[in-house]
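The protein record passed on below.

***
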Amino acid sequence: MPPAFPLSPRLLALPLWASLVAHRGVWQWGAPLLEVAVGSRSPLPLPHQLRALIDAPGVRGLWLKVDRLVLQGGQATLHETIAAVQAMRASGRLVVAEFEFVGNAELLLAAACDRAWLRPTAQVFCVGLGTTMRFYGDLLARFGASFDVEAVGEFKSFGEMFSRGFASSENREAMSELLQGLSEEWVDALAALRPSLGAEGVRAAVANAPLSAAEAVKLGFFTGACYPDEVAAEVHTLVGSEPRVVPFAGWYRAWARADRLERWLLGHGLIAVVWLSGTVMDGAGIPAAASIAARPVVAALDALREERGVRGVVLRVSSPGGSAPASDLIWRAVARLGKEKPVVASYGDVSASGGVYLSASASEIVCHPASITGSIGVIAGKPVLRGALERQGVHSEDLLMAPQADLFGETAFSPQARRRLRAGLEETYRGFVERVAAGRKRTYEEIEPHARGRVWAGRRAHSLGLVDHLGGLDMALERAAALAGISAFRTRDVRPVAPGGLLQRLARRFVVAAVPEVALLRLPDSARLLLSQPAEALALWPWEIEVR
């Protein structure tokens, strides 16, 4: 006799679902306090992972043990982490933290917690934001070497790194405005968490840095100055009993599996999150490198376009740019995907130049106020090493069968080659701006004044119309779901990699032919690309800076 109701794979999965829910903590003995070791060895999970705690059943709170947060990402990641901690506290969960080292990032995280402790002998290096721009022009000149670089846009200051001994006025203006915007985001966020100090009080503390532990406690940044055993006693007193401490990583893996299954059982729509991180490159990319390789990315986007179950796509872009032709290929794949289902780009710490290019055709762009973006411009160049080689007794003789046969050679561009190169760059630049303008439904004339290679902080980019919304990955997911017409969704991570089996992947990693490319990874992205792709149009942001 047929069953009274139709059986489906989802109904048959109910026993498994029940067991996984039990594992998530609903029926466990005592709600756990999840422990996260934050540092270079155990990086802080992504902010959207921390947000899992907001709705997760049976979790008492979070105990952060912070070694050094500054290595875990840029300003946008920091602020998204702070937002996740605040949302967790708003849901009634406890968040406590203990710190071994305190810098700008750690201080902001401490202020966001319910309770925070630092070591009695620690110093608080709340020195404010800054960076260092380095110029290699004079050093290269000593060896008779240089880089011959052509750029479109007066703010596309990439070549200055190799040709000058100091910054141009345009470069200094752009970088100063960028850092000012990021600094204001940090000060305002800290002032909002410590309203008794306000922005002026925060600036006064920065002016007097480094602070002693006692001074930081007196200003209200920390609950107290304690050793680890004293912190444990404080936490026990705070929760009223011996807390059941569970490592976050293991708990999250189990929770994520159960959450995906639960959302599938409930019929939630699928949003694919495509993670694009690193330098944009042609072909299949370099093994073991953090890169956005055009071939596997295009293949992944084409597959998502054909996959019926995917209702929308979010591109999580963290890239300083790279190859303009590769960015254009990905832009085209995004445009084709967008005709079938909504595509929302979410900018990480840095999404500039090629990162902007490849995502320009997205339905919407979400950018965090502390993200670094813009740098809409193109460059091309090559190393000029003839003089340096001759100084070492290495002499060269060119045999050229055509006027431009030395385009990729060791000497500077000839006048004719420079004219042709610049004409190509200007054409690429115009196409770049046109793609950005079309994607944001604006005219070329509206966007171009804000291009020209200039880098912007996210909030300023939003006011200029370069991005559509201010927010993090969570907002991008919500926008993708809204555009897809679904009220509830589940996610699936997609990390495009080069095609091939295990043996092919091992071969690409270890064969002798790959050694020169792997060696190039030790160089800055800018120099590596100029060496490996001379005279090719590059959409690469002008500096490789660390905002500290």
The two ends are 71 Å apart (CA to CA). The domain at 28-127+209-252 is CATH 3.90.226.10 (2-enoyl-CoA Hydratase; Chain A, domain 1).
